[in-house]
Amino acid sequence: MVRFDGEIILNHINLSIKDKEFVTLLGPSGCGKTTTLRIIGGFLHPDEGRVFFCGEDITGKPPHLRPVNTVFQRYALFPHLNVYENIAFGLKIKKLDKEEIENRVMQMLEIVNLSGFEKRRVTQLSGGQQQRVAIARAMVNRPKVLLLDEPLGALDLKLRKEMQIELKDMQQSLETTFIYVTHDQEEALTMSDVVVVMNEGEILQEGKPTDIYNEPQNAFVADFIGESNIVNGIMHRDYCVEFAGKLHECEDKNFRPMQPVDVVIRPEDIRFAAPENAVLSGVVETVVFKGVHYEITVSAANLHWIIQSTRSANVGDEIGLRFGPGDIHIMKKMFEGTKTVVKGRVTAENTVEFLGISFKREALGIPAGTEVTVSIEPDSVELVSADRADMVVYLESLIYKGAYNEVILYTEESEIMAHTQLDEEVGTDVGIKFDFDKIDVKRN
Amino acid sequence: MIGLRNKTKLTSAPYIVWMAAFIIVPLAMIIFFAFTREDGTPTIDNIIGIGRWLRVFWNSFCLAFLSTAICLVIAYPMAYALSRSKVKKQRTLLVLITLPMWMSFLLKTYALMTLLEDTGIINNLLRMIGLGPYHMINTSGAVVFGMVYDFLPFMILPLYTVMIKIDHSLLEAADDLGANNRKTLMKIVLPLSLPGIISGITMVFVPSVSSFVISRFLGGSKIELIGDLIEYNFIQKHNPHIGSALSLILMIVILILMGIMNTFDDEEIGEMLI
């Protein structure tokens, strides 16, 4: 566990990494992935918990005594040294003999395609070249584990794609364990043997790229990895789920009867169908050509569905949609229940207090001093600017549910669920305003 | 573009006038006086005659070197610690460091005099614990102490300015590549702070070598430095010719020394850090 200024940055991170694996820590900014990497590198010391390397506890060891090397986010090349001296830095510290150093540096320069650049100043290199020097400088020490902190973040798209392939090749030919940090899901899926999805300082899911993509564990992972249609559903019984106003056959089981769930269908798994074979029918709203496929939004059963298809359609067309039981992924909700339920108190006649705010309710009929239960429907919470807000809360997650964004908000005491049409940035503070008339107050 | 250029010219006009009036003209006068006799005829006797004060030159440079070196040794770790501390702490410490610069230089030197006297505060305190008295005033030690005391902030500030620009990730990278603290200091921090070291040395050495107040107050009549000599010739003997010759030679020697110093400065690093 790691705290910073009293705030918990990492919590219960339990990660074991096998030799020669390419492991990627994936998550949005602020999810704790870089912090995790810095703990492995030795630049940060966890408040609780240990770091083991081949069975040896290295938690207290400084970076220069650890068998790992790091490629820093912005390379951190030494500006006063040239390319050769930068790469040779670690070997010179280890006092290897000159010939050995030269051999290894030259070999490394060849691997990263920078032969002939040894006398260049690092400040004269392009971003991609600096990046390769940074990799060479770390790899030349033959570390057991190489840590890479968003090393391709500063490069343009084309160069990034090239470097992804080069990095993967390098990892395989040098047989080194790579621990890679990125917020780019495509990068993670392309390069990794194992992807670790993180959010809010916790590991949400860990597995092979195909597993993460095909079997996301919750709506956050589904939303973060690739595009998804995520809608609310109710699990009637094993293999039977209700959503979009119908019962559907699915392949999931072991839920409580009538348990609210998130239903995920990938856009490429939805196909067009003739009206008689269609599971849903709707109207085409937008069509965007994406190169390999068309991205089509269809309004069906009062929800918006994203479909990727090689076939085009015309806006306004009535079309049928089809998907099979295997295309439907059922996930437990991150937020239990369909509305927010918190404890409250009647503080004076017709006045109810909850989460530190209070409101008046005519003819409440509950005497002052009584403990009550306050239920808030997601529709009666509105996201507003801070100056109009009843309270300021932390926006924990935002997922588009086909017709609205479902947001989960953190207060110090409780989580609040709300539905909104606004697209606020996750991980920021937002203001909320309650529609007090719609709030339900019950005696305990 | 042309409008802009005219504007820059206009805004720099006050400085150009200032520079002409108080730098160029006096410099020309010094050169003129240095190469003329009292009757205005040209000569190089003034310059040649300076040979008799070789000892004074030597003394001045030795004391200035010594005080610059002491300043560097004290300021370097201080500036480093300062640059790596928290922003709030940095601000407080910076104010404390620059605080002495807000006070009159003359006043501080007077204060030092009363501290260092044979019956001064330091000796009185020492006597209370059964030590001393030590003779401190009117020694070259006192002069060096005075110089360090007066000029230390001028060493810390340029060092600090350069050091805060050294990216923390460079130190982490060195650590990551196997360098312990000492090696990181020698191989990364020291070379990258070289521009700061050089401007710090310049800012301490130049005023030290030409100072005359410090040596007069703290060195008595015993310690004679070039500054004193120049002042004596101008003010006491009303001989601007010898005074100018001394000033000119001093200036040339300083310029040569600074020129040598600057060859150690790596332009690339300077650019990187600016």
Please, what is the average pLDDT of chain A? 87
Largest sheet of chain A: 6 strands, mixed
Architecture of chain B, CATH level 2?
Orthogonal Bundle
Whole-number total of structural domains of chain B: 1
Envelope shape of chain A: globular
Spatial sequence of strands, sheet with the most strands of chain A: 6-7-8-3-9-10
* Residue share in β-strands of chain A: 35-45%
Work out the count of structural domains of chain A: 3
What is the rounded distance between the termini of chain B? 25 Å
| Spans of at least 5 consecutive residues with low confidence of chain B | 268-274
Q: Rounded to an integer, what's the Rg of chain B over CA atoms?
A: 23 Å
- Give average pLDDT of chain B, whole number: 86
Largest interface: A-B, 26 and 22 residues
Alpha-carbon distance between the two ends of chain A: 37 Å
Please identify the top-level CATH class of the largest domain in chain A: Alpha Beta
- Quick one: CATH superfamily of chain B? MetI-like
Structural account:
The complex is a heterodimer of chains A (444) and B (274). With 444 residues, chain A is of the alpha+beta class. Chain A folds into 3 domains: 213 residues, 3-Layer(aba) Sandwich (Rossmann fold); 106 residues, no CATH class; 104 residues, Beta Barrel (OB fold (Dihydrolipoamide Acetyltransferase, E2P)), CATH 2.40.50. Helices cover 19% and strands 36% of the residues of chain A. In chain A, the strands form 7 sheets. Chain A has a 6-stranded mixed β-sheet, sandwiched between helices. In chain A, helix 2 runs parallel beside helix 4. Chain A is globular and about 90 Å long. With 274 residues, chain B is mainly α. Chain B has one domain: MetI-like (MetI-like fold, Orthogonal Bundle). Chain B is 77% helix and 0% strand. Chain B is built from 14 helices and no strands. The interface between A and B is medium-sized, with 26 and 22 residues.
